[in-house]
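Section 3.1: Structural characterization of target chains.
Under the original work plan, the team committed to producing a structural model for every single-chain target entering the pipeline before any wet-lab resources were allocated. The record below documents one such target. The sequence was received from the expression subgroup and is listed exactly as submitted; it comprises 308 residues.
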Amino acid sequence: MPRCARVKSNEYTYHIICRSISEIDLFRDNDDKVRYLELIKKYQTIFNFKIYAYCLMDNHLHILLFSNGSDISKIMHGINQSYSQYYNYKYARHGHVFQDRFKSKVVDNDRYMFVLSLYIHKNAKDLKGIKSIYKYEFSSLPVYLGLSKDRYNILDPSVILTRLSKDKFKAISRYTLLVNTFKPSEENVANCEEFDYEIYNNIIEYRSEKVKVIQDIDKHKVIEYLSELFSMDAFNLRIKHLKTNTTYKALTVIMLRGLCDMTIKEICEYIGDVTQSHISKLCSKGYELINSKYQYIIKNFIVMHTPA
């Protein structure tokens, strides 16, 4: 039976669900969960998507994700493929790790987004050995409530919390009320039922606006920006085995991948006479660079090319 086409837009918020195949746990220990969150951070750096909520269970996971101009399939394929490689290597196995494609449901209104955040955060109650969902370190709920820091720097709770109040402490208090009020089940989420919307409507004070990063920027603008920054001609991209241009090439590749929505194959064709393996290595190098001394590179470029 053919697969149904996935509903996609580069401006959607999605409820993402990924499950393991039936005979294995997706996460066998906490180190596996840490690795998955690190991979989210890696691909978030590349594609600039936003995470509004998440919860990692043993055999599945939930993510509330705003694509922010990127292709959701590319995002999740990158994360899940990388995790599968890690998992199979660590546990000396072969084959699939995830059950079919990831599931994604479009979140098309604010109330539904609230319900999903609550549902995702209360998922942890079903984990064995978890005494309190408020202390579960692989859920975003403790960060929402100010009980822990966002140690992976992947979460943006402000989209939801600032709608509850401009005052941080009032927002946390009100979100706690919503968590305690909500009765979770998949059916409730699907139908937005069993939720006291009177409470919700009475406490909403402020609506923050999403600022979308444009992901279809002309590749020539990226080349022009980096060439000027590093005082290099674009021809340097095509020069092999020149150590002095490695940083320039790596940052170019990571920005073409993330901001211009180019595939590794397309980057190969654009640069010319280079393998996909080499481009993948440059992409990894670029990721390291923008998480160290070149953190400002993408941020400055986005500011310069995002419409006012």
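The chain has a mean pLDDT of 84.
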